[in-house]
Amino acid sequence: MQRKEPSCAAAEADEPPERPRRSSHRHRSRTSVFPLSGFVICTLAIPSACAFIPLSPQLSSPRPSLHQLRARQGGATASGIGFGAETKVVKKKKPKSARSDSSKAVHGGFRFSGGLRPGKLSPRREVPREIPRPDYVGGLPPVKNILGWIPQKSPEEIEGMRRAGRIAREVLDIAGRAVQPGVTTDEIDALVHEAAIERNAYPSPLGYRGFPKSVCTSANEVICHGIPDSTVLCEGDIVNVDVTTYFEGFHGDCSETFLVGSPDGVDEEGRRLVKVTYDAWQEAIKLCKPGTPYKNIGKTIYEYVRSYGYDSTPGFCGHGIGRMFHDQPEIHHVPNSVRGEMRPGHTFTIEPMINEGSGEYITWPDQWTVTTKDGKRSAQFEHTILITDDGVGHELLTGKIESSPKYWWEGTGYDVEPVRT
């Protein structure tokens, strides 16, 4: 994506190349269960729109190596902006400039809702042959759970999930530290890609239904599945980085929404949205224990964010995860009637996508990038969760580790009050 703001973006090309489109499929899946003479008949349950609704070689541009990118983390660049540098950046009033009337003009026959535009894609990054691939790499459709049952992991499978979740967490932490003004989303993709293969893991998004990159980067009005490209992150932006890694036969999936630049550089409305999204996510995680109906997650999230004046995106959901990227159950983030209860050994993601305005959305012509219909911002957090019978009720397989950066509000006393009605 590329913003039409010359004060922040690098030199722009005349016209970005047309992005490859993924094969079309419906945005929602349905599971119906009908009791019949003591038996249960399940219709097909295809989680095609869960979490990563799904997302190819493009223009050639120099690929930044991991060494080059990490070298920049040691200090500021010539322009004063580095990954780990403590620099002062000129602040700009974000919402007005990013969402001016001109930003909603028709572009290439498509009417965008906010200030972001598709940028240039770098060539597809390669993964060493010796690293095992998921089943869908190479053009085959992903394996699907067509029976609708929720698998319970064995102790050996749970250990595999822990290892995959730990790698996903480490990679997300590396990506989060790289989120700074002046960095492109393609540079974040390069970091994620190299960090995954350094750990002998495959970046799960790469090649999933044709998705061309190794991570999803969703800034400002992008709800999910943003494709990393030449878009330059600016002081005052917010951006979700969604990492999934495949290691020794299992996927680990997590994401966070980061503030670009200092917290003071993001307007209060943006900070508030991110914090409320996190809090709603935490309220849902508290429900996770054996016997909890899966449908309770959506009701809890929806009621929480509505009390702050926000809306939850209805068309996208969390999902079961393990040997399959997207498995049963479906985890909806709005009120729903999904059947099923949590059982020890279940593994799944909770990943609410919360919007400043309406929950309505549009999809860009690339058939991946999903943005709010009204152009207002969206935020998201995600963990891979294991249900346990140890008295706690659950384990965060992608939870923060000792070396993880703290959330920006920790230790500041920052909090948000519900909307008074």
TrEMBL record:
Biological process, per Gene Ontology: proteolysis
Catalytic activity field: Release of N-terminal amino acids, preferentially methionine, from peptides and arylamides
One GO CC term on file: cytosol
InterPro entries per UniProt: Creatinase/aminopeptidase-like, Pept_M24, Pept_M24_MAP, Pept_M24A_MAP1
EC number, as in UniProt: 3.4.11.18
Domain of life of the native organism: Eukaryota
Residues involved in a divalent metal cation 2 binding: 253, 319, 351, 382
Coiled-coil features, chain-numbered ranges: none
Binding site for substrate: 225, 326
Biased composition annotated in UniProt, kind: Basic and acidic residues: 123-133
Cofactor note: Binds 2 divalent metal cations per subunit. Has a high-affinity and a low affinity metal-binding site. The true nature of the physiological cofactor is under debate. The enzyme is active with cobalt, zinc, manganese or divalent iron ions. Most likely, methionine aminopeptidases function as mononuclear Fe(2+)-metalloproteases under physiological conditions, and the catalytically relevant metal-binding site has been assigned to the histidine-containing high-affinity site.
Domain Peptidase M24 per the UniProt entry, residue ranges: 159-389
Ranges annotated as spanning the membrane: 33-55
Signal peptide: none
GO molecular function terms listed in the Swiss-Prot or TrEMBL record: initiator methionyl aminopeptidase activity; metal ion binding; metalloaminopeptidase activity
Top-level class of the enzyme under EC nomenclature: hydrolase
Family that this chain belongs to: Belongs to the peptidase M24A family. Methionine aminopeptidase type 1 subfamily.
Function as written in the Swiss-Prot or TrEMBL entry: Cotranslationally removes the N-terminal methionine from nascent proteins. The N-terminal methionine is often cleaved when the second residue in the primary sequence is small and uncharged (Met-Ala-, Cys, Gly, Pro, Ser, Thr, or Val).
Protein name: Methionine aminopeptidase
Originating organism: Vitrella brassicaformis (strain CCMP3155)
